[in-house]
Each structure stands twice: as C-alpha cells, then as structure tokens.
Amino acid sequence: MAGDFEALKLFRQAGLAGEILTGTFQKTPSRHVSEVLARSGLDFVVLDAEHAPFGIDVIDDILAPTRPIGFPVLVRIPELRPSFIGACLDAGAAGIVVPHVTSAEKAIEAVAAARFAAGGRGLSASGRAGGYGAMTLGDYMGDSDAAVSVWCQIEDVEAVDNLEAICAVPGVDALFVGRADLMRSLGAGTTGAPAVVNAVEKIARIGLAAGKRLAIFITDADEAARFKALGFSIFICGSDQSMLKARAQATKAAISGLSPSSGLSRGSACA
Fold this sequence. Notes:
Blueprint: H1 6-16, E1 21-26, H2 31-38, E2 44-48, H3 56-66, E3 73-76, H4 82-91, E4 95-98, H5 104-114, H6 137-147, E5 149-154, H7 157-161, H8 163-167, E6 174-177, H9 179-186, H10 194-209, E7 213-218, H11 224-228, E8 234-239, H12 240-256
Parallel strand pairs: 1-2, 1-8, 2-3, 3-4, 4-5, 5-6, 6-7, 7-8
Helix pairs in contact: 2-3, 3-4, 4-5, 9-10
GO cellular component, one term: cytoplasm
Protein name: Aldolase
Domain HpcH/HpaI aldolase/citrate lyase: 25-242
C-alpha cells in the first residue's frame, strides 16, 4: 500500500486512546539494532537524536527496514528545527519527540512542523513516506497528518508554569516528562526528590484534565506501576545500550558464580 500509513495510524490512535504502550530509546546508530527491536514485541522505539549520533542519513537507513513492516519509530529531535523534522517524517518516522517545550508558542511550532494542516511542513510525496511518489499530494497530506505523533517534552520549570497553555495547543498528542532535566531545572539532587515528585504529579493532573496522554522515561520496568497510577500510559524504558549492558552483566555474574565442579567445560560458549 502506498505510504504504509495504516500501522502508524493505529499506533497513534492507541496512544490517544490511553492504551499502555511500551518502548525504549535507541542510542546506537544501527539499522540492525532497530530490526531486532522491531521484532522484540515492543510497541515503538525512539531514536535519540538529541543525545546520540543520529543524522538524517542514519535515520533514513534505519527507517528503510522498519517502515515497511509497520513498526513505529519516532525521533527525538535535537532541537526544534522544521527542516529536520520534515526530513525525518518524509523518511518514514512515526512521529517526533520535541525536547524542552517550555511554552505554547513552541508547542504550536512543533505541531506546525509535523503536520501539513497546521501550515508549517514542506510538502513532497517523493520520499519513503509518500511511497516514492505513488500517493497523490492530497492523500499524502491527509494520511500523514492522521498518522504522525507529536510528543512534547516537559522538563523545565518554565514548562510546568506554562503547562495549561501548552495543553491547549491542538495536535499535541502526549506530554513526555523528562525527570532528569526537570531535576536539574528545579535544582534538585535526584529524580526522586520531593520537588521533582510534586512537579511530576502536577504535570499529570493538568495533562489529564486537558485530555492529554502522559509519557515518561523509566530506568526499570518496576517503576511503571507507580506512574500508571498517576495516569501515565506511555513508557520509554531504558535504551538499547542499557538493555545490552544489563543482560551482559547478568550473564557474567551468573556464569562467574558457578563452582569449578559445575560441569562448565573449557570449550563452552554462549550463543
């Protein structure tokens, strides 16, 4: 099907409906990592172009195998730059995660850069998302606007102060709480500090009252239940790198704990 938007529409609709969605950050610029994660059972992946080396060439290469199979890959952009946002979406990204959205004006700019109807996105159906020219411009605009997710990161004191205005911006699908930067902005020492906890709870209350979905980064799956109780439904748990490291460390610890009489032969190997 030209454009392959149906899976991304379903993903966005699931998010807007408040279904529990689980994903992770990908920080390794490799299409092979994305292909593995696409077959892991996760609901989505976010390429971390803010804190990892993801230029548009790498992003395009990663989306080549994941877009055709309908696996949602979002991009956390490094800054609010419409040309880069448009390039990511033309290449087939499922949506954008926008850091440091501190005002309604920034939220408006983000939505405008991601959606044609909002008036700010450049139009061309010649890329992967448009089926390399197989879609009419009208169909492409309509399908893309219905499929693209826009998540605004709330991670600054200014953003918390302006949250009601941010929530009033049409087209913002989710508020993504970044506790690390929120901690820094509040002058706290840990993400579990009372000031951070209170700010997260305030974001949840205002966001839910405005009908916005809530997303949050967690380092461990055990944290999910606590935030679900606050109304969060989108969870980004760790990253490809943290998962790989944790599994390697666990494997090392388990094998190192074997006694010499355990039967592990010198020629044994891990697959």
